Amino acid sequence: MTWHPLARRQLDEAFPEGPPAHPGLRALLAQISQTYTAADHDRNERARLEQVVAGNTSELERHSRDMAMILDNVAQGFATVDLDGAIRSTCSQAFTRWFGELHGDTRIWTLLAGHDPNLAAWMQLGFESIQSELMPTDVVIGQLPRRIDRGDRQFRIEYQPIGEPLRAILVVVSDITDEVARQRAEAAQHELLAVVDNAYRDRSGFVAFLRDTNELVRDEPPDMPLVELERRLHTLKGNAAMFGVTSVAEVCHELENRIADEYAAPDAAAWAVLVDTWQAFHDRVDNVLHISQRRSIQVDWEEYQVVVSAIGDGHPALAAQIRSWGQDPTRPHLEHFADRARRLARRLGKAELDVEIRDNDLRIDSDRFAPLWSVLIHSVRNAVDHGIEPAAARLARGKPPRARLAFSTELRGAELVVEIRDDGSGVDWPAVARRAQAMGLPSATRRDLVDALFSSGLSTAPEITQTSGRGLGMSALRATCAELGGRVDVVSEPGTGTTVRCCVPLPRSSPRTRGTSLFRV
Question: Does the domain spanning 327-519 belong to CATH 3.40.50.300?
Answer without folding.
Answer: no
